[in-house]
């Protein structure tokens, strides 16, 4: 299990950042993955989904849902974060900030159309102590 998949409250996150990347409720994420809410939380604990705590409730960043389903690469991204001793809040914020290695696009914006590129950058940047 990736440490901190559900992380401390994100009050410090700008609302614009949160809104832009479509933090979904547990019910919305469950509908996308096609499982019950309980089964969706199991996916979170296994590292197959990224969830962050927002006012005591899990929220699911929209960048991990590509073409109406969970991008399988999210699991590998969670593993890179774990190996880099990052929690999920750190991973979320890394994903939504412009990245020079991605021509100043955010990893979140690149993830669905080129997940392997985001993973390669994540391995290089995050393991070097971003």
Tell me about this structure.
The protein is mainly alpha-helical and 130 residues long. It has one domain. It is 47% helix and 8% strand. It has a two-stranded antiparallel sheet. A two-stranded antiparallel ribbon has the order 3-4. The longest helix has 13 residues. It starts with 14 loop residues before the first helix and ends with a helix.
Give keywords.
130 residues, globular, disordered N terminus, two-stranded antiparallel sheet, two-stranded antiparallel ribbon, 47% helix, mainly alpha, single chain
Q: Uncertain regions: pLDDT < 50 for 5+ in a row?
A: 1-12
Q: What is the percent of helical residues?
A: 40-55%
Distance between the termini: 22 Å
Q: How large a portion of the residues is in β-strands, by DSSP E?
A: 5-15%
Instruction: State the shape.
Output: globular
DSSP, total strands: 4
Whole-number tally of structural domains: 1
Q: State the order of secondary-structure elements, H for helix, E for strand.
A: HHHEEEEHHHH
Q: Strand order across the biggest sheet?
A: 1-2
Q: Report the biggest beta sheet as strand number plus sense, adding barrel if it closes.
A: 2 strands, antiparallel
Radius of gyration: 13 Å
Structural class: mainly alpha
The number of helical segments is: 7
Mean pLDDT: 84
Compact description:
It is built from seven helices and four strands. With 130 residues, the chain is mainly alpha-helical.
